[in-house]
Design goal:
This protein is α/β, with parallel strands linked by helices. 40% of the residues lie in helices and 18% in strands. The chain contains 14 helices and eleven strands. Strands 1, 2, 3, 4, 5, 6, 7, 8, 9, 10 and 11 form an eleven-stranded mixed sheet that branches. Helix 2 links the parallel strand 1 and strand 2. The longest helix has 20 residues. The protein starts with a helix and ends with a helix.
């Protein structure tokens, strides 16, 4: 057995032009990391003999920047949000990735044509579409139930605590939509000082009822513990709690903020070549469809869509739970990564000052 493993690892090194026996991949914890372990890590190790070490962070972009700037990089591959991928690439902290080297679709369509628009970037390859939504525990609503983004901010109609991610991103957009700004105008409004003030004023209407969260696993727990009446959350975390743990949680798609997560390779990654092979493997058509068996995030490839079937329980159809399902897109906003790459520092400072103020 030991000889077989050594041989398979050696063959993998020859095939990939790399001698790595281990690969460190950083992600976001919880149900999302589990979906990657099942769909990517285990099959990659089985194919190559290269052991994948899974590590997590609240936001992998932060340790990437710190490690590269310190010249002490231990991460080979990281999963980051689009605006962070753009910023890290612009700052020269991650390697370029040639999209033409990615595997074609099963019918031969080149990867550059098979990935959904916006899913490929100079230094990053997307795996999933996900969204920030809000959710509630259905057992706490025997009568009228929330259905709109306005309802999240209406504590007169639905009194109770609200969970929000501690950060400007998504909160500002949701606040403006709840205040009547059409989705297509949100970023134009948010580029103005008046728009920022308007978003903060709307958030201020629920400030005394906010419980902040920082990690994706926290919102389902806040709901389960009854600490909040409603909470923003990553859609896949709520789905997993409902489908895998039988929690009576309901997603409200109105006002959802769509986003992408992408794989990147930090500058100075100890196993750069094997890291690239891992990304190629993990973003092929079948692997992206396989991840959707474990969590309700939409594959970044067009050819993966028809292969998405049932949740791993063997009975729940996944398609209606994807953020990109037509019924869920009626009032959705696609995160403007260029906006956040330009304004993240400024708006985060204003947001943090607002949080700290009485």
């Amino acid at each position: 057995m030991k000889k077989t493993l050594i041989l398979s690892t050696a063959l993998a090194g020859l095939a990939f032009g790399a001698s790595a026996q281990e690969l460190t991949v950083m992600s976001w914890r919880g149900a999302y990391t589990k979906s990657q372990v099942e769909a990517y890590h285990k099959p990659f190790t089985e194919k190559t003999g290269i052991k994948v070490i899974s590590v997590d962070a609240d936001n992998p972009a932060t340790p990437i920047k710190a490690q590269v700037e310190a010249g002490n990089v231990s991460i080979d591959v990281a999963d980051v949000e689009l605006s962070d991928a753009v910023r890290l690439c612009d700052e020269g902290l991650i390697y370029p990735i040639d999209a033409a080297a990615l595997p074609a679709a099963p019918d031969g369509t080149p990867a550059t044509e098979d990935f959904i628009d916006g899913a490929l970037y100079d230094c990053a390859v997307a795996s999933i579409f996900w969204s920030t939504v809000y959710a509630y525990d259905d057992s706490k609503f025997p009568g009228e139930k929330p259905t709109t983004i306005e309802d999240f901010f209406d504590t007169a109609k639905f009194p109770g605590k609200r969970g929000l991610r501690r950060g400007a991103k998504a909160n500002f957009e949701m606040a403006l939509m709840a205040d009547g700004v059409p989705a297509e105008e949100v970023y134009d409004v948010l580029k103005t000082p008046e728009g920022v003030d308007r978003a903060l004023a709307k958030l201020g209407t629920i400030k005394s009822d906010i419980i902040w969260w920082e990690a994706g696993a926290q919102p389902p727990q806040l709901l389960a513990d009854g600490e909040v009446l409603m909470t923003t959350a990553y859609n896949g975390r709520i789905f997993n709690a409902a489908a895998a743990e039988n929690k009576p949680f309901v997603v409200v798609w109105d006002g959802q903020i769509l986003d992408l997560d992408l794989f990147v390779i930090p500058k100075g990654a100890p196993n750069k070549e094997a890291a690239l092979e891992f990304i190629k493997f993990s973003t092929d058509t079948q692997r992206l469809a396989d991840q959707a068996k474990w969590i309700s995030y939409g594959p970044a490839r067009k050819s993966s869509g028809p292969l998405v079937g049932l949740f791993n329980d063997g009975k729940t159809e996944m398609a209606p739970h994807m953020p990109t399902a037509p019924a869920n897109m009626e009032n959705a906003l696609l995160n403007d990564f260029e906006f956040w790459a330009d304004y993240d520092v400024e708006l985060s400072e204003k947001f943090n000052a607002w949080v700290a103020a009485n």
